[in-house]
Amino acid sequence: MSALLEVRHVSRSFRTTLAVNDVSFAVEPGELLGLIGPNGAGKSTLFNLIAGVLPPSSGQILFEGRPVTGWKAHDMARLGVARTFQIPKPYRQLSVIENVMLSAFLREKSIAGSRKLAEATLADVGLADYAGSPASALTVGLLKRLEVARALAMRPKLVLFDEIMAGLTPTEVGAMTKFVAELPARGITVIWVEHVLYAIMKTATRMVVINRGKQIAEGTPAVMARDPAVVKAYLGEEMILA
Asked: Is the pTM of this model over 0.85?
């Protein structure tokens, strides 16, 4: 099976700071890849490089075998790459469904079509009852769901989730974990950055770990939970996965 995404020796510097340093990995269709590391490790910057928000300083990115290094975010979105952001920034003056419709217009050219897709997506993430509410009225947990809905309404082949659990209650974490785990079966490949480790460790099929911009380990969650380099750089102690 050909990789959906390939990241080859990618680096990104900001003046004298090397935020991403020679990172390489591939993601297969239908995979749920966890991307973990300490705060400031370069995870969000790496997402920006994959999604076209920033160009790499060096290295190559391929999507479905096609070189896409340096492509703009709107071009990557059309190819099928969507992402969320750590801090949701919806159009607060618009309603919840209007926010999602803006994403849906990438695939649906009519108002009726985009509304239908937005309604289905809101039902998917449990926001159907809030469709007419202003985005400014949502709690942190609901804003996170809206961020996920906006990404999924683009009908992506690959979605990049950036800390979608932050600020959620334990009940909300459980529901979101189950939802994310089901996406690959629906044809959506996932790369997930998350600090709620028990959620991502039990859900991901494979993990990539970076620290100070450098990739330090790659493997299954069970192996990463006991890897000495990962424990030292991030976990602090070995994790036991039930």
From this structure: yes
